[in-house]
């Protein structure tokens, strides 16, 4: 399986982004690999910030940065022309470039020529491994947990990372399995699920979560949503291929419309649980939902506690915000391991 | 959108295939483009035949063939070493090669060198168009029908071709939309859905079935099955992206286990209809099932008539075998257009 050794520490590049939901790569690195992030850089027009110091590429290189990570994604994963000058500036300052979009850095002649001239590397972490097999659907040893979303960009990766850490802190042998660019940057390996050719997507999920010791847990980063008008196929392939024993459904209270698709309502929690269990049972007959992970980042502590308690009462399962932790999160972890 | 102009007529290559289900490309060309097929060729061990005359590549070239089509697929779409001598022989006889597998002809050095030396073309029809957009989920004008399978290789393409012809014969403006290699060979264009990167699969289905006149029908070839352990993600992306007004569910009576995945039962018709309508309603709220297409090729005429009548009674919808036609098929067509 492809694993990647990346030049570190990073300067995080935010482009001209105004939508925080598109900067989840940068936020994820700040939160989960802070020791690898020394600052952020963006171009005029950007309003999103990670809170890290703003450094020019030259300042970052002086401070020890080895690479600039493109820490934002836009719909479709393209590199807008407005970013190119900044990417060239980074290479001229001595930094390699790391990209996780569908558009490959190496496909931009100006970037390729600059990299060749200066001896810099263009590292695309969204290129899947070669020769992924078709899924077999055969049962595997070991235990698996998959995070399932009601939408994109609302906490599936955070939840998986939090649960993997919590499992480990309780002495449970657990591995975080990354399926997207940020997760791969954090974990140092994985498979970029959404870049796999559709026929092999379930096979990629099987490859990512192989046979393991009976007590071992793979904690798998979910992708997309089974209700998403563009990405549901990816979500279903990941669900079928990962054969989870346990799912945890991830939601953001107040997210009423699908990000980038305002004609589409976000599905309810019960509907999401029921559909995921029904579809997941095809390859994992004993699949169960251990609880709900709520992203309460836009609520204050009192509101968050109220929403968490109310949803737990309404759904009848443990509900927690992993970022807030606490007793609620302990109950969610216990439910996963039960 | 990519369309392809292929050298014709074809010699159909059957490899060393013993499983008829894997030779659907060859059977489809024989049945739907007979004027383009002058014979078949295979290597020792093959037991599958199209019934066309067996011709060596040299005999086929003398008879006017311009290309040899690899008319079989194996699980995963690879080219086994046992086929390579035959492919080289075809080029030496003067034929171009047309392939529709995931493995690209051009990736085999021996084939590439032979083609370059002899001035032959290696044509891979499974390469999707460049720059497929992410699906928008927005409603489009015109009407759409998608065939939905209970498994692979049981008649989704045949059904779509039959319905498109039947619509046209009734004066309805209809276009067959191909999503796989055989359909593309027959139609001369389309998008190889299973070769699209997973994130763009629903977008590819939108691209394949664009805005059209309100009375126009796109009749879309389905792929895989929503219950398939390896390919359900492709099927769901195609369902979401094609936004069908009407589905027709395709099944083979007696097919109890998923082809190539004997641990998996084939789902029932009611279950398949219900799941497809539920999932499809996400992007096409008024989706309905017009009826069932049964592949009764393994039954005699009396058995077929009995099964068709019994299933129609049981399900409460028109049921027909498009290959057998008759009143039952007329009722299915009328139900689609109702």
Report on the structure:
Chains A, B: InterPro entries: DgcN-like (IPR011669), DgcN-like_C (IPR035086), DgcN-like_N (IPR035402), P-loop_NTPase (IPR027417). 2 copies of one chain form a homodimer. With 338 residues, the first copy, chain A, is α/β, with parallel strands linked by helices. Chain A has 2 domains: 10-124, NAD(P)-binding Rossmann-like Domain (Rossmann fold), CATH 3.40.50; 143-337, P-loop containing nucleotide triphosphate hydrolases (Rossmann fold, 3-Layer(aba) Sandwich). Helix content of chain A is 33%, strand content 17%. Chain A is built from 11 helices and 13 strands. Chain A has a 6-stranded parallel sheet with strand order 7-8-6-9-12-13, sandwiched between helices. In chain A, β4, α4 and β5 (122-124) form a beta-alpha-beta unit. Chain A is globular. The A-B interface holds A 75-77, 102, 133-138, 193-203, 227, 229-238, 240, 261, 263-264, 279, 282-283 and B 75-77, 102, 133-138, 193-203, 227, 229-238, 240, 261, 263-264, 279, 282-283.
Give a topology summary:
Two copies of one chain form a homodimer.
Chain A: E1 10-13, H1 24-32, E2 37-41, H2 57-62, E3 67-70, H3 84-92, E4 96-99, H4 109-118, E5 122-124, E6 143-149, H5 156-169, E7 174-177, H6 181-187, H7 201-208, E8 217-220, H8 232-242, E9 246-251, E10 257-258, E11 261-265, H9 269-280, E12 288-294, H10 301-315, E13 319-320, H11 326-337
Parallel strand pairs in A: 1-2, 1-3, 3-4, 4-5, 6-8, 6-9, 7-8, 9-12, 12-13
Antiparallel strand pairs in A: 10-11
Helix pairs in contact in A: 1-6, 3-4, 7-8
């Amino acid at each position: 399986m492809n694993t990647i050794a990346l030049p570190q520490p990073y300067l995080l590049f935010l482009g001209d982004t105004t939508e925080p939901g598109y900067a989840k790569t940068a936020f994820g690195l700040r939160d989960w690999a802070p020791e690898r992030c020394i600052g952020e850089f963006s171009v005029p027009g950007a309003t999103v910030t990670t809170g890290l110091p703003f450094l020019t590429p030259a300042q970052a290189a002086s401070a020890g940065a080895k690479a600039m990570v493109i820490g934002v994604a836009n719909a479709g994963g393209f590199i807008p022309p407005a970013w190119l000058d900044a990417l060239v500036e980074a290479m001229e300052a001595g930094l390699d470039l790391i990209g996780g979009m569908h558009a490959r850095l190496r496909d931009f002649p100006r970037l390729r020529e600059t990299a060749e001239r200066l001896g810099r590397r263009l590292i695309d972490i969204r290129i899947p491994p070669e020769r992924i097999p078709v899924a077999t659907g055969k049962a595997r040893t070991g235990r698996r947990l998959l995070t399932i979303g009601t939408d994109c960009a609302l906490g599936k990766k955070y939840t998986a990372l939090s649960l993997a850490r919590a499992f480990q802190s309780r002495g449970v042998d657990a591995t975080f399995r990354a399926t997207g660019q940020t997760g791969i940057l954090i974990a140092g390996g994985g498979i970029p699920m959404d870049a796999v050719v559709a026929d092999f997507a379930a096979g990629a999920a099987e490859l990512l979560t192989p046979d393991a010791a009976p007590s071992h847990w793979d904690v798998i980063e979910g992708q997309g949503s089974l209700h998403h008008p563009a990405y549901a196929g990816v979500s279903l392939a990941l669900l079928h291929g990962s054969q989870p024993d346990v799912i945890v459904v991830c939601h953001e209270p107040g997210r009423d419309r699908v990000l980038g698709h305002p004609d589409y309502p976000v599905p309810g929690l019960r509907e999401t649980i029921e559909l995921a269990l029904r579809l997941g049972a095809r390859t994992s007959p004993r699949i169960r939902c251990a609880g709900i992970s709520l992203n309460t980042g836009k609520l204050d502590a009192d509101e968050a506690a109220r929403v968490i308690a109310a949803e737990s009462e309404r759904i009848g399962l443990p509900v927690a915000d992993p970022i807030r932790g606490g007793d609620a999160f302990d109950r969610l972890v216990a439910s996963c391991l039960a």
